[in-house]
Amino acid sequence: MNAETGNVRLHSEGAIWTLELDRPEKHNAMSPGMADQLYERVVTINRSPEARVIILRGAGERAFSAGSDIKALDSYPEAWDFHNRMHDYTRSIRQIRKPVTLSVNLG
Question: Considering only Cβ atoms within 10 Å of each terminal Cβ, which end of the chain, N or C, has fewer?
């Protein structure tokens, strides 16, 4: 399984699958589009009997993830609209039904 499109990539090598946040120029900050992609990738992982272990990592060398992309708030009438309209990316990660480990670059 390889999902190369978007900023949330999914790669597999046998039973080991890597879920990568790939927006290093923004410290892998989660945009609404990335949150949607993450949700879709988690659905794929959970449905796949081949996926046995998940490695969660952030691309680049400076940050795993800065959290939510604050600049995306500008496109919404109110800040809470941002929260209410995007998939809760932390919930998506918690919903992975396989063992998950993190790969963090310490520099």
Answer: C
